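In the laboratory, one determines a bound structure by crystallizing the protein with its ligand and collecting diffraction data. In a computational setting the workflow is compressed into a single prediction: the sequence and the ligand go in, and a structural description comes out. We illustrate the idea with adenosine-5'-diphosphate.
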Amino acid sequence: MNSQHFQTPVEYLKGVGLARAEVLKKELGIFIFEDLLKHFPYKYIDRTRFYKIRDINPEMPYVQVLARLVSKEVLGEKHTKRLVVQAKDDTGYIELVWFQGIKWIEKTLVPGKVYVLFGKPGSFNGKPQMAHPEVEIYSSKEFKQKGNLTLQPAYNSTEKLKQFSLDSKGLQKLISSLLDMHAKDIQENLPLYILNKFKLAGRAESYKNIHFPDNQTQLNEATYRLKFEELFFLQLKLLKNKLLRTQKFKGNVFASVGHYFNDFYSNKLPFELTDAQKRVLKEIRIDTQRGVQMNRLLQGDVGSGKTVVALMSMLIAIDNGFQACIMAPTEILANQHYQTISSLIGDKFLEIALLTGSVPQKKRKIIHEKLENGSLKILIGTHALIEDKVQYQNLGLVVIDEQHRFGVEQRAKLWRKNIIPPHVLVMTATPIPRTLAMTLYGDLDVSVIDQLPAGRKPIETRHYYEAQRLRMFGMMKQEITKGRQIYVVYPLIEESEKLDLKSLMDGVEIMSREFPLPQYRISVVHGRLSAADKDFEMQRFIKSETHIMVATTVIEVGVNVPNASVMVIENAERFGLSQLHQLRGRVGRGAEQSFCILMSKDKLSNDGRVRLNTMVKTNNGFEIAEIDMQLRGPGNIEGTQQSGVLDLKVADLATDQQLLIQARQCVEDIFARDPQLALPEHHILQAAFQSKNAGLSWDKIS
Ligand code: ADP
Ligand code: MG
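The predicted complex, in structure-token form:
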């Protein structure tokens, strides 16, 4: 709101006062007029017409009926006590019944008078009935005046608010009086040409109509306009941030590709890059030449080959006299990156080191020294990488793996590691839908590896019910006979580590009985083990000393055992889609056909069934992420939880994708034409920007 009025503390609204203001703040986060105005209805009740009694039936949602009371009586005793009322119109009779609040309602109802009844039609003994309808005495005059024949808003409220008479109706009254007084002060904040282009309703009108629409069309138009506005300003803020950042921060220039890159590419790279990998490398190459700091998100399914891309980008940095580092969220993962990269580049190519919490002091000191004098080129590690003690001679590129596990603080630390901030490449194996990325990472550039290396056989996924467990065992034996290894994963039960361990231990017992020594050997890994024990068990499996790895989800990230070709997921219905997909990504890394077996109980919820069917149907992480978002809503997708960016009031990233894409495009066009928003037609945007709520925040920058 540009107008001063809307910044007024809510206690100054007529009918609020200090006590109610206090609960509004506590319960709904409503502090000022604007907050109240943006407390939108969560649904609407159709009061656009009166139905005749003859025309209603139990299939219908809430309806409104005009009827004259005929009689009322209280029947039954104690538990069966109820108020039964007969009413009629010119087409028939309807029975109204109350089981609660009987005394009070009985007093207010007067036979012979006409009432507006509002409720869900039901039937009793084959006759029309309504339980607990809203009743209101009908006054034709008032009805004409107030125009009660509308879509009636319903607002979220709480028990506490209700104690202050702020139920849905109470809130409605406040919002109505706010609009009565100040609707005229709501100023337009979008340029006229945009209103015209997207056929958007005016702003004041939209706020009025989203609360109190006369009909469905009005409501649709208001909602559309406010959704567009919300998405538009979010994108405006994100893209403005990006623009400012590129103006404010210079970037290291990786002018040329040199010896390290070329030597690696020609002599060491053991395979042909996929087209997607080549494309992404090109994107990074262009980014790092411009003298502008790169902030790029690299999304790609597990196994799509992100690590190689990261390595080759680092080689370009090194070719230009810089150092590079990779930061991983866990020690296991850091270790693995170190192994992978070491084996790819071979000995004596360039100096790399691993720095994690468990590196002993002495070795650590040497690493620190070599970083400072510049002889160490690539550092791989965990959070230990960004401790203040760690000083680089010339850090040019930072690769962050599985970004969402790192806090903003930690990323900010990285920035201070060089005078010119290093380029940042964030890698994630949790693909998120395009529209979500546009919002969540709207100020980053996004690259996608949407292609697996050639020759990989797609993982075959099967879903078995508990009753088919023997088939699953049979299949496990078959694969072990072929020399393969198998993961069996049990869910993590967050509320109870104990239960967790129990379900795992029960599983171990079942597996041990089915796969007895000495013919079969089993590794067990779970969160309660010490790092050393975990590593010991992992190593046994990696070295093929054991056939089966029974584990909780600790193996979700990391661990690359190409010979493991079967992933059995127990209680698969308990896992979210993205987690199932992550787990499945642990297999399919070798040349053989791999399998993922989803074990579930026999009775599934609808969501559970959709999840498992989706897994069976597709291997594509982006497709899965899309369905995940439809099932759970954008706010519940992994990696989005702490993001304020998704606090959208009207728009919904799962259903408003088209609109989001349009809004983003619209903003991109504006900045391309007028980066300073200096054109007269964009003054209105400048103003909106300078208002309190569009303030720039830097917290989303990698
Ligand atoms: P991600 O990190 O995306 O999960 P990795 O980079 O670990 O994937 O790659 C997975 C495996 O595929 C590694 O063994 C890697 O060497 C191999 N790989 C990567 N790119 C290719 C390619 N273009 N062709 C064949 N194998 C590849
Ligand atoms: Mg990886």
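The chain has 24 helices and 22 strands. Keep in mind that any predicted model is a hypothesis to be tested, not a measurement.
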